[in-house]
Amino acid sequence: MSSKSRGELYRDPSRAKIGGVCAGLADYLGWEAWLVRILVVSGVLFGMPFLVMIYIAAWFILDKKPKNLQRQDNYNQQAPEQNNDRAGFDSSIKVKARIWQAGEPPKQAFHDIRRKFNALEKELRKIEQYVTSTEFTISREINKL
Fold first, then answer.
1. Residue ranges of the domains in the chain?
2. Would you say 22 and 33 are in contact if contact means Cβ atoms under 8 Å apart?
3. pLDDT given for residue 75 in this prediction
4. pTM
């Protein structure tokens, strides 16, 4: 488990298959949602039918995840060419160490980091081109007057 505090338990309807309880529990535990779903379904199938009642109760009791706590899944699920805003550069990439932990596989994280650096390099080239242009020099001289 991670050393950071877990926070509160919410259900996550944005990643829900039924009610978002398993997705919220997965976020709380730092696991993948598919693993929590498999554990719940196999628990119900192998003689723990009370899990259905617990799931339904949690569906009604747990609050929906607030918008300000939403993970940046919307950003990560978009195509890279749609991610030209600055929010994409500021998001951190969480790499999973174990298969059941939440986060990106190392190979995908590497590609995301590489894409971010390439986008930043393009921005830097645009800035450098403007600063070395005559337009910038003329604008600077006019501002000095």
1. 1-71, 72-145
2. yes
3. 44
4. 0.52
